[in-house]
Amino acid sequence: MDELTRAGTTAVIAEDCAASTPESGVARRLTKGLVCQVLHSVGGDFVYLFPRSINWTEREDEPIPVGNPLRVPLSVIRPLNSRNEFMVSRYSAPSAICTQTLKGTVSCGCIVDTLHSKSLPEDLSRRIASFLVVKNVNFEEIAVTCASSDRGDFPLSSVLESESNTWWISGEGTMRFRGEEYLQFRLSPDGRTRRVSFFGLSLPPMPHGPLSVRHFRLDWSLDGDTWIKGGKEHTLETIDMEGMQAFELSPAIDAACVRLVCFQNVVWAERFHYSNCASEPALTGFDCVGLYHVRMK
């Protein structure tokens, strides 16, 4: 736990929690997986922190403005996964040599050693092992392939750009109370599997972003036809802030395609929290969902 109290440490929210802002006293909800930076500890039981930016691409991205620090119990944060530490501080394109293997399989070295012990030549053993190797996703290779619906304000590809005046919004009438509107992404040009360890979203905060996605899930596919629905670990919640908010995916996703499935926008999520909105009349003009940009790493 000592490492989590050091200033500058990158940490992850381990469970949904309420955070307080010392200056205003206003409580804010933080969601599991959110990447943060520790400012300092308070008596060993609490820490002050703020959501932190990570380097998604070689291009300048949307930094998170440093505002009021958030106070949370030390017990609700965890260290960043050690294999992901190097990816937070700098942009790192996948290297030409990669030895990590698909989840659920053994390590590349173990495969090579086992096959070599069965009298197979080492070069052949390495060739066989290469079919289970998976590279980290390269953001420059990601493409948006389709959406469940689109209001048509901008091309779908704009969600992978960095222009601050572009966005995606689903079709009108697609998000009354709750829906399943999605954006679909291909992770590599040749359809090969890639590993996604972080997922990022930027949204207009309230009061400017009532349509911003609040609750979402990540689904994935190895072939673009058969889809795996993300479970509890990959069902996440955005927070009301400027900049690119980052979530560490634990476990990481190995896939050829990923869907960002949006369940609720901010207005409907807040209305549901305070009342039985399913039985109330629709909110005119708030029956769709949207976001600025998407990032993966």
Binned strand content: 25-35%
Q: Describe the main β-sheet briefly.
A: 6 strands, antiparallel
Question: Termini, distance in Å?
Answer: 27 Å
Which percent range fits the helix content?
A: 10-25%
The CATH H-level superfamily of the largest domain is Galactose-binding domain-like
Task: Report on this structure.
- The protein has 297 residues and is mainly beta.
- It has 3 domains: 2-86; 99-133, no CATH class; 139-296, Sandwich (Jelly Rolls).
- The chain is built from 4 helices and 19 strands.
- The protein has helices at residues 85-89, 108-117, 122-129, 266-274; strands spanning 10-13, 17-20, 27-30, 35-42, 46-51, 70-73, 77-79, 135-136, 143-147, 168-169, 181-186, 194-202, 213-221, 227-228, 235-237, 244-255, 257-265, 290-291, 293-296.
- The strands form 5 sheets. Strands 9, 11, 13, 14, 15 and 17 form a 6-stranded antiparallel beta sheet that branches.
- Helix 2 packs antiparallel against helix 3.
- The two termini are 27 Å apart.
- 33% of the residues are buried.
- The mean pLDDT is 85.
